[in-house]
Amino acid sequence: MKDHVGIGIIGFGTVGAGTVKILQENRELIHERTNLYLDIRKIADLDIETDRGIPVDPAVLTRDAEEVIHDPDVDIMVELIGGYEPAARFIKESLRHGKYVVTANKALLATRGWELFETADENGTNIAFEASVGGGIPILRSVREGLCANQFQSIHGILNGTANYILTRMDEAEMDFEEALSEAQAKGYAEADPSYDVDGIDTAHKIAILSTLAFGVRVPFDAIPVKGIRSISQLDVRYAHALGLVIKLLAVGRWQDGELEIRVHPVMIPEHHLLAKVKGVYNAIHVIGDFVGSTLYYGKGAGMFPTGSAVVSDIISIARQLSQGCTYNLPPLGYPPPAFREAIIQDASEVKGAFYLRMMTVDRPGVLSKISGILGENGISLSSVIQKGKGEEPVAIVMVTHDTTWRQVDAALKIIDQLDVVMKPTLALHIEQDLK
């Protein structure tokens, strides 16, 4: 029986350093639990001079990823450089050399995952990727294994800590978007270019992976409607509170009548729901199964140690199988490949519910009735109307609709936003009430 498993790591950045630290400091704990020693054989990175604050034998460091891939003593290759290339090439080459792969690369998996899984299958090896969604939260393992007896009904997730931190600061500290973003960048929670986080792209990568596991379908990434949080103002945060709601960037995956409803956008949710109470850089995923009912998973969604913890959990899972002389053959996506089918993506414009509409208008008699008339002509009835700031311009008019569809809302707003009394594009937010 094998008691030493060789680990090679490509990428010695934040997550790579966290992974190495966990493997080193918990080496004896891991041995107690598994009767295995996980030996770091090679670490590849373009920068091998910078001190990461972790003692590493210089002999294992290299600038050449090929040394990791071709080292016969490396059983498991860990890809932590991110991006599309050369990450995809390194993963494929490792699989072709019979190595198992662990990755945290959600962007690559969401857009090109199938070609990687096919390469793994062709070469009798496998890919593990728990760290790609939810950081240290074991959500993929829960969906793939712990809840595998269930037909999943819906997934609602706060999946990006940067966006959630910004919205939390806008709420609690009454900051505007730009001020909260600047603070997030100063604290290292947001990149210099925060587009992937605040525009919802990172969240979309994650819900694509989650939905694939939960519903057994191929999700074309380009078919996911995505909106970010740049348009949210301090005004909207205050009106949300007045309505008993909280604004969150939410990912939704819901299975209905053989179709997949999948979307990412800022929404309003009831302030009493547990997802409304998820603050700062934390993530949470609410999953409903037909027999288990409602379940919630909460924790840090990114960072050196939470993500590194998930990476090491995958390493341990594979190493346990290898130590027994077995192959690690757990279906990476929870279903055997022949069971997958192409997803029929529900038309996002037909998503139904109540909507929050915030318009900035001139203070003139008849404005409210004119706007209400256009909404009525498009089949939209109103639940409530709030108008404040009389005598100042622009004046905010906030309307909450009864149940309607995005299609009807968009059609009405195309007309409303052309009115000479409307000074800025109207903000429309879905009010997510079907959370159970």
**Model regions low in confidence, pLDDT < 50 over at least 5 residues:** none
Give the rounded overall mean pLDDT.
Answer: 93
Output the radius of gyration: 24 Å
Distance between the first and last residues' Cα = 49 Å
Oligomer: single chain
In CATH terms, the superfamily of the largest domain is NAD(P)-binding Rossmann-like Domain
Strand content: 25-35%
- CATH topology name of the largest domain, in short, is Rossmann fold
Number of helices: 14
How many beta-strand runs?
18
Helix-strand makeup class = alpha/beta
Estimated helix fraction: 25-40%
CATH architecture of the largest domain: 3-Layer(aba) Sandwich
Shape field: elongated
Report the biggest beta sheet as strand number plus sense, adding barrel if it closes: 10 strands, mixed
Number of domains: 3
**The first-level CATH class name of the largest domain:** Alpha Beta
